[in-house]
Amino acid sequence: MEIEIATIGGYEEVGRQMTAVRAGNDVVIFDMGLNLSQVLIHDNVETERMHSLDLIDMGAIPDDRIMSDLEGDVQAIVPTHGHLDHIGAISKLAHRYDAPVVATPFTIELVKQQIESEQKFGVENDLVKMDPGESMTIGDHGCELEFVNVTHSIIDAINPVLHTPEGAIVYGLDKRMDHTPVIGDPIDMKRFREIGREGEGVLCYIEDCTNANKKGRTPSENVAREHLRDVLYSIEDYDGGIVATTFSSHIARVKSLVEFADDIGRQPVLLGRSMEKYSGTAERLDFIDFPSDLGMFGHRKSVDRTFKRIMNEGKENFLPVVTGHQGEPRAMLTRMARGETPYELDDGDKVVFSARVIPEPTNEGQRYQAEKLLGMQGARIYDDIHVSGHLNQEGHYAMLDALQPQHIVPAHQDLKGLSGYVKLCEGEGYHMGRDVHVSRNGNLIQLVD
Ligand SMILES: [Zn+2]
Question: Where does this polypeptide localize (predicted)?
Fold first, then answer.
C-alpha cells in the first residue's frame, strides 16, 4: 500500500497545524489550525467574516491547495485537541472535504462552538465523538484510527494513530509526559510501547518539536499546582486585592486557582469571555465539578457589575481569575491595568500570572506594557507560575524508545526550532534525509511506493 504524508501547515511556524496521511486511497487529515499571531498583527480583523483564500494569504490558516495532489478520498478530519492552532481553521476549510470531524468530546464541543460563530461558510461536516482508547475503521482497505490518551495544557487531548497494513502512523502533536495530571488520566505510555512492538511496528512518527531545544524533562501539571499553592498561601494574610490570570483553556490550572482561592478565604470568580466559554463547557460536559456558587461572567455588563460588587463588598474577600496573561490589549487584565473597569488597584495589590510569556515579539511587547501599567497602579507581580504543555528532550527520548519508528517527521516549529530534535534523532541513530524528513509547508513525503 502506498503511504504518503502531506505536510501542509505548522512546518515553518508554531501555529496553523495541518498534516494529511494517505494510505492507498484513504486520506486522514490531522489538525486544521489557525496561526493567531498572523491575525492579531492586523488591527480589527474579524476572521469570522473572512474568506479562506484571504486567510491563507495572511498566513493565518494552512494552504491546503496541495490536497489536490493527494490521490485519495478524505475519510476523516481529526483535530488532536481544542487549542486554536489545531482547530481554528476547521470553520474555514472543513466544508471543502466530504468527511466527518472526529475528535474527543471536549474538542468536538469547541469545534461546534467555532462552527456556530462562523459567518462566511456553512460547515456541515458530521461531528463524531470518539474517546481516548477507542478505535474506528477508516475506508475499506484495512486502516484503523485509534486515539491514545496524552496529557497537555488542555483536557481531553489525544495522539491519533492511523494503523495501516504497512505499519502505524503516529501523529504526536501536542503533549507533555504527565504521570500525575491534575485532571484526567496520565499519558498512556503502555499503549505507545505496545504500538511500537505490535504488527509492522511504527512506520512513521510525526513529532511536536515545540520544546525540542530544551534539555531535561517538562514537569507535571502537579508541579505548577504546588507552585501556585505556595504563592497563594504565602499571601493568605494580605488584606487587599489579589488578581490571577491564566490560559482560559487550561481547565486544570483554573481548577487549582479556584480551589486555592477558597483555601485562603477568598471567593473565586471567573471573568472574561473566553474564561466563561472554556470553563462553562468543561463543567457542562462533566470534566470538572466547580463549586455551585462559582461565578463565571463573560459579557462586559455582567463583568462590570461583578467588579462593582467586589469593590462594595471588599476586594479582600475575592480572587478574580481573569483573561489577559499575555497582555492582550482587549483582555480583562489589560483593561484593569488601564483603569477601564470598576476594579481599583491599590499599592501592594498582587497580580499572579500563572502563565509564561509566549516568546514572540508581539506578545512580549504587550505583556511588558500590561505589567508596566499594573506597576503604575501599584500592583506587585508574580510571574511564570507555569509548566509547559510540550515535551522537552527527555520526553522525546522516551517517545523514540517506546515507538521505535522507522521514519520521523519533525513538526510544530520553524527550522531553528526543529534543529534540536533532528540532532537528538541523529544521536539515536537516525539520519536527516534518510529517515528523518525535515519538511516545509506544502510538501509531500513518499514513505512507501
Ligand atoms: Zn496545544
Answer: Cytoplasm
